[in-house]
Structures are given as C-alpha cells and as structure tokens.
C-alpha cells in the first residue's frame, strides 16, 4: 500500500511540474498578459524634423520654451516624463526638431527611457 501511495504522489508531483506558470484565468494579470501589444502614441520619427507650431499642434503647448543661440529648447509634460525637444535651423534656416530626450518629472528620479516616454504621450492621451 505504501508503494502505491508513493507512486501516486510522485505521479502527482510530476504532473504539477508540467503546469505552465502565469496568472490564474480571469484575473487582471491574465487579461494584461493576453492583450495584444499597444501601439506607441508617438515615435521619434513622428517628431524629428517638425517645426515648433507642428509640435505644439501635435503635443499641446510646451511647458517651457527657451531660445539659446540659434537653437530652441522646448519641454513638454508627458504622462510619465518630461519630453525635451531641441530645434535647430535646417538648411533653409527654419528651426526643426533635431534632438529628442526624456527627463524625469521629479528631481532625483531615474532618467526615463525616451521610447517609453514617447509611447505613452501627454497626460490627456493616456
């Protein structure tokens, strides 16, 4: 009888080891895991090369605009970060977005990933 009990226990343990890990069906975690990837709201290509008015029409008004020499610094408040866009004159002299960066919303916080920042967009878009 003991041998039969041990054999059944080992078989049960072996079957449990084959189960796939993950969230139980019907939970929020399971729903999030099974969702299709979300398309980013913005990509670098959506912004680079655009002028200030195009950027403001697309992103809303900049939280800060500062001219520095021939360049222009523009900061936009996004959902999880501050988006920094630097405009420099192109060959015709028109200022266009030439450089993008992401900054933390709070002093001392880790620098956010630019692509993740762009993907979420401004607070009104999320």
Describe this structure in words.
This protein is α+β, with helices and mostly antiparallel strands and 126 residues long. The chain has 2 domains: 2-34, no CATH class; 44-125, no CATH class. The chain has 5 helices and 4 strands, in the order ααααββββα. The chain has a 4-stranded antiparallel β-sheet, covered by helices on one side. A hairpin with a 4-residue loop joins β2 and β3. It is globular and about 50 Å long. The protein starts with a helix and ends in a 6-residue tail after the last helix.
Short summary:
The chain has helices at 2-17, 28-34, 44-47, 52-59, 114-120, and strands spanning 64-68, 71-77, 82-89, 95-103.
Enumerate the strands of the largest sheet in spatial order, edge to edge or round the barrel. Answer: 1-2-3-4
Please report the total strand number as a whole number. 4
> H/E order of the elements?
HHHHEEEEH
Helix content: 25-40%
Number of domains: 2
- Which regions are unreliable across 5 or more consecutive residues at pLDDT < 50? 3-20
Strand content: 15-25%
């Amino acid at each position: 009888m003991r041998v039969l009990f041990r054999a059944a226990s080992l078989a049960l343990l072996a079957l449990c080891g084959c189960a796939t890990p993950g969230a139980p069906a019907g939970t929020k975690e399971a729903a999030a895991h099974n969702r299709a990837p979300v398309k980013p709201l913005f990509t670098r290509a959506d912004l680079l090369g655009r002028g200030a008015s195009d950027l403001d029409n697309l992103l809303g008004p900049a939280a800060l605009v500062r001219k520095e020499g021939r360049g222009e610094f523009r900061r936009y408040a996004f959902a999880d970060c501050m988006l920094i866009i630097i405009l420099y004159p192109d060959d015709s002299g028109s200022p266009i977005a030439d450089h993008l960066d992401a900054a933390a919303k709070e002093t001392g916080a880790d620098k956010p990933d630019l692509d993740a920042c762009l993907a979420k967009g401004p607070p009104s878009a999320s």
